[in-house]
Design brief:
Number of strands: 11
CATH architecture of the largest domain: Alpha-Beta Complex
Strand content: 15-25%
Shape: elongated
Oligomer: single chain
Number of helices: 8
Structural class: alpha+beta
Length: 243
């Protein structure tokens, strides 16, 4: 069944009536369509495929695992606008930012957004039909506002491009990763992840179940060890004597 695209009101495409960023955060329509703001104009985001959604959920889960280390002071999330120009707001598939910036974004009225001065530490874009946006436009915008690390995940080309920017430098340098490669993140060197895992993502529900089962096994083993230690002590046997 072919769906008829929801028309954007004429006043939104009139050069004299461009939306401000504040207007964009308050904008709603009667559909589930997501929009980005591009220099004052609403731009529809492509409908995500199942693979696109699975990759996003998988990466979000993995980044949240890394960010669970409270010493990092970071959180990973999605569905938040990143202001890259005065009248431009992008919505990356995954965003990593400080706890303080996430709190500020959530406290504001309208849609959640990171404003100027609340630059994310890392963003991920999973490429769909708008590949030029990800490789060219967003690449330039994210570099301009100083996002240190930008991932372009391209299922069609089976390519992951990690763009990095050192403080004080203009623009990104990048490294490409293909099937068989292990990802190397400057921001998260402890991240153990391969290209194949990303393009053949395990369902997040399965990952959670597997992690839960492992925790249960470890807890059961700990209880058995404690029970054995108690039994030996009752018999007057020291664990030091057995070692």
């Amino acid at each position: 069944m072919v769906q008829t695209p929801t028309p954007v009101p004429d006043w939104l495409t009139d050069d004299g009536d461009r939306l401000t960023f504040a207007d964009f955060l308050q904008y709603e329509d009667s559909t589930d369509t997501k929009y980005e703001l591009v220099r004052g104009f609403l731009q529809k985001m492509p409908t995500a495929t199942m693979l696109h959604v699975s990759i996003c959920q998988f990466l979000l889960y993995r980044f949240r695992e890394i960010c669970s280390d409270k010493e990092l002071g970071l959180l990973a999330g999605c569905d938040v606008s990143v202001r890259t120009e005065d009248k431009t707001g992008r919505i990356p598939d995954v965003v990593v930012n400080t706890v303080e910036h996430w709190q500020a974004a959530g406290d504001r009225q309208g849609g959640a957004a990171f404003h100027h001065g609340e630059t994310p530490a890392l963003v991920v874009e999973v490429v769909s039909t708008n590949w030029k946006d990800d490789y060219l436009l967003k690449h330039g915008e994210y570099a301009y506002i100083g996002i240190p690390e930008y991932w372009i995940v391209d299922p069609q080309r089976e390519l992951i491009r990690i763009c990095t920017q050192t403080a004080g430098e203009d623009g990104y340098s990048h490294q490409d990763f293909k099937p068989g490669d292990t990802i190397k993140s400057v921001l998260f060197p402890q991240l153990n992840l391969t290209v194949d895992e990303i393009f053949e993502p395990i369902l997040v529900e399965e990952m959670i179940q597997s992690k839960t089962e492992l925790q249960q096994e470890l807890e059961a083993e700990k209880r058995r060890s404690q029970q054995l230690e108690t039994l030996l002590r009752e018999k007057g046997i020291s664990l030091d004597e057995l070692s």
